[in-house]
TrEMBL record:
Domain of life: Eukaryota
The organism's taxonomic lineage, starting at the top: Eukaryota, Viridiplantae, Streptophyta, Embryophyta, Tracheophyta
Protein name according to UniProt: Uncharacterized protein
Amino acid sequence: MTAVANHLVPVISSESNSGFIGLNNASMNDSYHRIHGEVPSHDVVWRIACDESGTEFTDIIYEKAITINRPDRRNAFRPHTVKELIRAFNDARDDSSVGVIILTGKGTEAFCSGGDQALRTRDGYADYENFGRLNVLDLQVAGYAVGGGHVLHMVCDLTIAADNAIFGQTGPKVGSFDAGYGSSIMSRLVGPKKAREMWFLARFYTAEEAEKMGLVNTVVPLEKLEQETIKWSREILRNSPTAIRVLKSALNAVDDGHAGLQALGGDATLIFYGTEEGSEGKTAFVERRRPDFLKFPRRP
């Protein structure tokens, strides 16, 4: 218990006005950190990537990380932007070398503003929560994340916010709304009462206020936003990819209904097929013998 408590000593950042829970420096000498070491802090070299279509992206910059590239429109997305995001997410998801996808907006004034209607595609709703089912989606927010951009941040797994970030919904002010993930996910994140406040009053909230209500994971100085996001991503990548995959499916299952349960079942089946018990039936069939399942324990 003492070892665990040492990790959770409140740390007040001298570079931010808000306090946050951080790792106590004294705990860096424990056995875990002696074995695993510190998270690497070297700079990332970004390289332009493409999907199998080979078609150039115009509304986004794709480097396996994804940047909405419409700064002249405060990175508001349109249907074409959504199509490019889908292409990039699908490509990154299918790349076995990618474990974390970082999503952000070009510049420091807005991550993404507006675009509620653009989220709706011909086949229904652009389901960003599930595009990265095999990957963790890290969102890096600087400036405004409002309207459709606010919904986009909520369906990502994690949100790292700069201290200049602003969050909120605009829909009711302009005769629009999101009765899908933008409502249900928000209610789970901040609670039903706060979600009603955010939608009915359409107010904006600072990064510090967003952190207090559980809308974002952490707030850092703007100049350290990318560095912190990379650090979180690398820390995730050090962990078991199968464990992360199943946990993500489990965390999403409630919102995904039967589709979510199917995905969770699929992940469990994938793990099972890799076990000796999972191979017994197939092996017995090939060898034309009765499978011997009695040799496997029936655990409580």
